[in-house]
Amino acid sequence: MTQTDTMPIPDQVLEAAARIAAHAHITPILQARSIDTETGTALHFKAEHLQRVGAFKFRGACNAVFALSDAEAAGGVVTHSSGNHGAALALAAQLRGIPCHVVVPDGAVPAKLASIQRYGATLHHCAPTIAAREAGCAQVQADTGATAIHPYTHPQVIAGQGTAALELLSARPELDALVVPLGGGGLAAGTALAIQALQRDCALYLAEPVGAADGARSFAGGVLDHEFVPDTVCDGLRGSLGAINFELLRTTDARVLTVDDAATLSAQRMLLACMKQLVEPSSAIALAAVLGNQALFAGRRVGVVLTGGNVDFTALADLLRE
Length: 322
Description:
CATH topology of the largest domain: Rossmann fold
CATH architecture of the largest domain: 3-Layer(aba) Sandwich
Structural class: alpha/beta
């Protein structure tokens, strides 16, 4: 799947904020005294699960689609996605009035596939491997002339994702740390750019599932390590860390915190019980990282990005039983 490999820069986050202003929500920042007491930390939750399509992904997709020239947009757009990015790109394409194609792996969450179709995209099914996804996108490109918008390595996607942190830090300049989930690295890289754009002294922590910890291994070894088979309830974080994202994050002091699934599900229940906020495991992992590292965050003012709320209804029944 081809995409522009130009490294994004901090100013592009500011440009993205202006570009998507007419389309994306400015999501609220939530607090919960009970969770602050539990963690010994002042937590400020950026509620991106209340963003359009129910996830922060709309920011990056919207920025990428509206950054296209008319000639580039004419053939539509194509991506591969197991859910949120596909829905986000479909809505952005719908808003611009261009076709959208999404290559989806077998076994994806049915509710997320329904969301993609709801926004008018054409689905193309493939085997549940990165190679099959890439091949499917290449075929759609060849057949339609669509422009590829990679879920997390496209520079305009990265810049767009950074606007969530840009809003959070602009509204809460006192924050001295941010915690975001780590999967492919689009949000993580965009957040790092936002911190640089605002010239803030703010530490960045990346919450990653133990069962998909290629980011932690890559940072430890200094080179990308994709030798893993993802095994985590966080379906949105099963993708491998992108090369462009890794290179950008290596220039920062970002630190990876690994979290097991049991802790993530416990944090998901805490958010529902204490804040009445229903989020995906891939989102709750950010709070779980704080809960599992209380000595690290104690006494600090911490921003936590709640990335998505598209919970599988069958999984919700299990969550409520707990």
